[in-house]
Each structure stands twice: as C-alpha cells, then as structure tokens.
Amino acid sequence: MTDSTSAPERLLQRLDWTVIRRLDGQLQGDYRTLFRGQGIDFADLREYQWGDDVRSIDWNVTARMDTPYVREFMEDREITAWFLLDLSPSVDFGTLDSERLKRSVLIDFVTTLARLLTRHGNKVGAVMYGSKVERTIPARGGRIQVLRMVNDLLAQPRLARSPQTDLAPLLDAGNATIKGRSLVFVISDFISAPGWERSLNVLSRRHEVLAVRLFDPREAELPDVGPLVMEDAETGEQLYVDTHDRRFRLRFKEAADRREATLAAAFARSGVDHVSLATDEDLVRAIVRMAARRKARKN
Q: How far apart are CA 178 and CA 208, in angstroms?
C-alpha cells in the first residue's frame, strides 16, 4: 500500500511531532515572546528609557517637554507575518549532513513558525527569491495556507547557476507588497551584492523586521583536511586550496569574522533584530534562543 499523504503534509506532520510539541513544552505556550509586535492603536506617552526603539519617539512632545518621550501602542490581537525568503544557489550549501543544507533549515524554520502563527489565529504570507523575485503568496490564515507555502517551497527549483545574488529586489518587493504594519522575517545567508542595506532600512521603518541569517559552520572555519577544490555555488568559479596551510585557514577565518561584523553593523544601523541559524543546530533550541533574545529586548 502506498502512502497517499502529500510531501507538504508529511513535512508538517514531522515538524508537529519533532519540533512544535517540544516548543509547546519549553515555551509553555508563551509565543508572545516570539511574535508580539508593536500595534497600531495609540495608548499612552511616557519618558524614553534606555533600550526603547528610537522610532517610537514623539518628537513634538519631546520638543515641548525638553526630554525624550515615546509613544506606546496597544498590541494588535492579530499578527500578520511575512517571510522574505532567499532561495538562491548559495542556500544549497551544507557540509555536515547532506540533508541539512541551508535550504532544508530554511524550509523547516518557515514551516514551524507559519504553523505556530496560524495556529494562534494569525496570517502568514511569503515572497520567494531565486535569481529574481519568483513568486508572492498573499497573507492568509489556517493550516491550508501553511501547506500551500510548504508546497511552493518544495517546488521551488534549485538553480545550478545564477547571477550574483542581490537581496535588494527581494526587500523592495516586500516593501511594495506588504501594506499594513507586519512582522517580517528576512531569511537568507546574506551572501549578496552590496546595496541591500538601504532597502532593509526602508523596510524596517514600516515594519518590525527580524533578520534570520542561515550559515554552515564550514563557512566560518575550515577543517584541516588537506587539498581540496572550493566552488562558488552561484558563479561556478573554482579555487584549489590546501587546508593543511595553517595561515590559509587563519585568513579564511579572519575574512569570515570581518563579514560577520559587517553584517551585524548593517543590521544595527537599520534597527533590525537578527539571529543566526546554523545547519548543525537543533531547531527547537534555536527558536527558544530566539524567543529569549526577543524577550530580553522587549523588557
């Protein structure tokens, strides 16, 4: 007898058992730490405190009172969340386990969060980017919406080659598509042509944005495994290297550290919270860590 269950249904069932049930236990139902955002209904004014979002400062009141004041809002009962998804060739990298490519982590992460959000009556939508913006899934609620997103993610073709990734069109598409204030997850390895930071800054002025950076540990530090050929996943350019060379491994790590610092600075300038999601990390542990980080920022 063949299994008639669809691939999206099987994936969702697997994550319900292996991830979501464990999250229910560890977060004890407090998903507000993950998803709560700033509402649109004005509630009150209070003096600015260290750590407040500077975008909430009421400059007219601040000028009159000669001290910073921020606006407080009633939290929306319903959240609309959007996933801006980088599915360019570089996300098909993964070395520790052939089943844990960055793409696999992205799909599991998006499916889990979409399921959690819709289960609590919220809406989710997505914009998908390959070598360009490939498709947009309008925001809706319900389990059928999650299955549609999973189906489209699984059906998105893997590109053997493409021009250099440019995240700006993905972020610009988010700006053009998302109308009301929303919670926006930008999920990418952020290996991109320069210039996307401006689009991220524009997006973060209108929405609450969380950048989720996908990475594989071997992108940050090479093991000593002798000579090997490294290939650019997007251009196909190949480079012969000798990982026995300690100085080469050190230069590789220093370059990775510089890139990490550059990304962190770009997120900070845009006022965007960010988390990293590794291919070898347990997804439950990563989401609980993300919730703790967001809770600390809100308090």
A: 12
